[in-house]
Amino acid sequence: QVQLVESGGGLVQPGGSLRLSCAASGLTFSSYYMSWYRQAPGQERELVATITSAGVTTNYADSVKGRFIISRDNVKNTVYLQMNSLKPEDTAVYYCKAYSYPKAYWGKGALVTVSS
After folding, report:
1. Is residue 4 within 8 Å of 106, Cβ to Cβ?
2. Residues forming a β-bridge with 112
């Protein structure tokens, strides 16, 4: 059974940093693209960042480019999202997704709240 478990969310002040982790099990992690999505209250889920299976290529939403960094450890079966210079508008539930066509798996999410 595939499981993706996010951790590292919490409350942080504007300008602060957090690192999210997503631990995967039950799949060949190194074969999957990994992504982080987020969903703010009342809004649609949006793609934040993606990293290819070997970790060679990354892509970011314009709203987080230069502030967030996605990375992965294919030995630990974990993907990370380092979030710096956080803004109140980054407040959302953050989800990780594993994708290898046609399969896709989601975690249950981690809440990040940016507030003073």
Report:
1. yes
2. 10, 92
pLDDT reported for residue 1: 94
CA distance 112 to 100: 27
Per residue in 79-116, pLDDT (tens digit) is 999 999 999 999 999 999 999 999 999 999 999 999 99
Maximum CA extent, the chain: 42
β-pair partners for 49: 36, 60
How do residues 29-64 score in pLDDT, each as one tens digit? 999 999 999 999 999 999 999 999 999 999 999 999
- Positive or negative torsion for Cα 83, 89, 91, 92: negative
AA identity, residue 65: K
> Closest by alpha carbon to 35, among 75, 6, 76?
6
For residue 108, the one-letter residue type is K
